[in-house]
Amino acid sequence: MSSDYDYSDDEDAFYDDDEDMISTGSAPSDDDMDMEFADDFKVPQHSPRKAYEIEHESLSQQAVEKLSAADVDHISSIFGVDDSTASLLLRHMNWNKERLIEKYMDNASSVSVAAGVSTPSRASPSVTGPAPIRSSGSRRRTTRQTPVPKAEPWVCPICFDDSQTSFLSLSCDHSFCAGCWTAYITSKIREEGEHAIRCMAEGCALVASDSFIVSTLAKYGEDGDGRTQERFQELLVRHFVGANPHLKYCPYPSCTYTVSCPSASSRSSLTTMVPTVSCGANHKFCFGCSVDSDHRPVICSVAKMWLKKCRDDSETANWIKSNTKECSKCQSTIEKNGGCNHMTCKKCKYEFCWVCMGPWSEHGTAWYSCNRYDEKAGVDARDAQSRSRASLERYLHYYNRWANHEQSAKLSVEMYNKTEKKMEEMQITSSLTWIEVQFMKRAVEEAERCRATLKWTYAMAFYLDKGNEKELFEDNQR
Amino acid sequence: MTSISSRRLRKELSEIQTEGCPTGITLLNADNFETWYFSIEILGESLYQGEVFKLMFRFDSSYPISAPAVQFVVNQESTAPVHPHVYSNGHICASILGTEWSPVLSVSAVCVTLQSMLASCKSKERPVDNDRYVRYAPDNPKKTRFHYDDDTV
């Protein structure tokens, strides 16, 4: 049960810990929560997942590291290479294990060279074995921190310092002093956010292994607090998460949780569901898009379409509606900014009367006043116009309601603050405890959630086809 | 300026002073460890015969881990060479000054590379987007993300 424990129920937030202990095993029987919900907030709601909820799991950075380590283990056991090499190969292939295995089996040396694991010249003999290990001696690239004894005083080609005693190199044998390596690695990680750090030599494509980076930083790193290493781990995790379609970083600032949502990993799945998920810190967001944190009931693409329409249309539409009419022949929008009622459409040259919208030919000599009473042509013309007006009006109907909710959502922050004050007051004036007044906060949160859903139902209704289902929908909406 | 960059520059400078610059390149000014000037000319057969250009190197504390800012000096006395990779404000689009920079490279290595870039030029023309780039170019060419698309020139 603990693996698909559902964090999305915000109500659980305060009881996470004990609930886990209480409900293990007995949880599935707890499906009458809807009734308990209203009258007793303390009952842990451990219901089976509701139909609209999406199975997802929040992962901490460590958990993601574990996941990637499992992939690395898998590859290293298949290829018979060490973990660092396997990690480099996987990163090169964007963590696509299947493709890596296929390509590696096909041509191990070219993959190793492309991944920066081995150098082209000596790639062929060594890649069948553990690629990065030098065949000539006991010095493995990953462990070559030890000062390499040199007969003549060795000058680091980067800092030109001949007093340096410790030199490091990857398996390409381009050695540089430890200080330069550290400065280089630190700058690559900290300034450029780069996890694939190439050898410093010109034109050398070898990439430093994780263990080389970690041990170099640990031994010679100057910052002492391990922040560079931390950042490096974070970069690796980010790369892993970015390469996995079923993983997503929580978009909230400085949140380190990752959410795994396998069922929403493909684009096509987003047409049938709204993957509203929340991370371990209770940040709610949509796994499929960045439009809104919770845009149920409309799917991501519709929500996006709606927002786009709103941005394009709403203000302009309002103005157009109040200031223009449409040519009853070609429907182009016309603003009358002076002159008599005899209008000639600039686009289709249709001549009509601004007052009745009927053709001018029927007006005879009554240039300045329209005295005709609804003759057929005039009615038709107004009909066509009103149809297009109606579509605009229909849109504005939904838009205004949607925008109202959007606006109130912004105002509800204030409401939230007020509630907190009220809660404090209640504790003082009545005998209620802190836990017992939590219901107010919950009520506000629930109201906010309802508002968000209600808001998006207007976008949904706008795009629904006319019919019984839509009527039902709008009845429910009321 | 941290010790590593000034130590490195001191070494490079003393090497230049004792062994001299590569042919066609002369050190004009290296009074500090922030900005150096060189003159550069292309010897032998080339489109730039008889022309002398002035190069400016700007170093920050991260040199040689990150590349120096290198550009041709454009003022009353000198201009930038007309070359498909050199903008009229003196900025140079060369991969070794950006993504392909390696800490092993040095000031004289950059000079030699630029020399050969000019020497192998087959037609004197400005980059296609010269006007647009120059209008919005940052003062420091390192702030530009060049797109290195042509390895032949």
UniProtKB/TrEMBL annotation, chain A:
Region of interest (Disordered), residue spans: 1-35, 116-146
Biased composition (Acidic residues): 1-21
Gene3D superfamilies with a match to the protein in the record: 1.20.120.1750, Zinc/RING finger domain, C3HC4 (zinc finger) (3.30.40.10)
Span of domain RING-type: 152-374, 156-199
Catalytic activity entry: [E2 ubiquitin-conjugating enzyme]-S-ubiquitinyl-L-cysteine + [acceptor protein]-L-lysine = [E2 ubiquitin-conjugating enzyme]-L-cysteine + [acceptor protein]-N(6)-ubiquitinyl-L-lysine
First-level EC class: transferase
SUPFAM superfamilies, per database record: RING/U-box
Alphabetical GO biological process terms: protein ubiquitination
UniProt-listed Enzyme Commission number(s): 2.3.2.31
Pfam families assigned to the protein according to its UniProt record, in alphabetical order: Ariadne (PF19422), IBR (PF01485), IBR_1 (PF22191), UBA_ARI1 (PF21235), zf-C3HC4 (PF00097)
Keywords: Metal-binding, Repeat, Transferase, Ubl conjugation pathway, Zinc, Zinc-finger
GO molecular function term, any single one: zinc ion binding
PROSITE patterns, alphabetized: TRIAD, ZF_RING_2
This protein's name: RBR-type E3 ubiquitin transferase
Organism: Suillus placidus
TrEMBL record, chain B:
Domain of life, per lineage: Eukaryota
PANTHER family, per the entry: UBIQUITIN-CONJUGATING ENZYME E2
CDD domains documented for this protein: UBCc_UBE2W
UniProt cross-references to SUPFAM superfamilies, sorted A to Z: UBC-like
Keyword Transmembrane helix among UniProt keywords: no
Lineage: Eukaryota, Fungi, Dikarya, Basidiomycota, Agaricomycotina
Organism, scientific name: Suillus placidus
Protein's UniProt name: UBC-like protein
Domain UBC core, first and last residues per copy: 4-153
